[in-house]
């Protein structure tokens, strides 16, 4: 801590409790104000270059969404738009089964919209995040499909799988919406942390 205290200008002997309180005050001032003052001033100078700072001061409400993140309630359409769906080649038997599951996925999102936190749980299941980050996801969330014989499954998997490292959900190929919904609900309710259901 010696180097930190020296660069903060707080390196001095402590002889009483009031010295401790003064040290804490100085460290907080350094950490919160003085340390960021230089970069902040350079940022303001950059904004002045094209007159942006002046416009920001005149119209702060117009610029607030650009600089201040405000989370919003997710909708089914927003969650659906986040995911890139990786389908098999057109005309294949796999593609027909996958397209049926895509409709189940979209119906499930619509049903989830009725509950306040279910869309957040779906997003967390796939990405580990309950809200969309201000700069989006990297990599973009995706949906893949689990076919018999994939990943050395000896039987057809019935639960969705998630890999939050690559923001991917792998959906099993169910033939009814009710079964899809039941298994997805089970997966959401019984998944804590990383790994397979």
UniProtKB/TrEMBL annotation:
GO terms for molecular function: ubiquitin-protein transferase activity. The active site is at 165 (glycyl thioester intermediate). Keywords: Transferase, Ubl conjugation pathway. Residues 120-197 form the HECT domain. This is HECT domain-containing protein. It comes from Astatotilapia calliptera (Eastern happy).
């Amino acid at each position: 801590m010696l180097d930190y205290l020296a660069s903060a200008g707080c390196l001095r002997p402590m002889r009483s409790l009031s010295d401790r309180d003064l040290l804490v005050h100085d460290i907080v001032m350094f950490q919160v104000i003085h340390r960021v003052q230089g970069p902040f001033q350079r940022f303001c100078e950059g904004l002045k270059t094209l007159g942006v700072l002046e416009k920001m001061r005149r119209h702060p409400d117009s610029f607030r969404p650009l600089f201040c993140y405000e989370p919003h309630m997710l909708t089914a359409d927003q969650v659906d738009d986040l995911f890139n769906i990786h389908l098999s080649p057109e005309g294949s038997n796999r593609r027909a089964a996958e397209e049926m599951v895509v409709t189940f996925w979209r119906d499930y999102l619509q049903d989830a919209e009725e509950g306040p936190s279910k869309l957040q749980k779906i997003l967390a299941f796939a990405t580990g995040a309950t809200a969309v980050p201000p700069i989006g996801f990297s990599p973009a969330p995706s949906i893949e499909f689990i076919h018999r014989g994939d990943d050395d499954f000896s039987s057809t998997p019935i639960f969705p799988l998630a890999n939050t490292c690559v923001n991917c959900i792998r959906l099993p190929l169910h033939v009814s919406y009710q079964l899809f919904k039941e298994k997805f609900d089970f997966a959401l309710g019984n998944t804590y942390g990383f790994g397979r259901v």
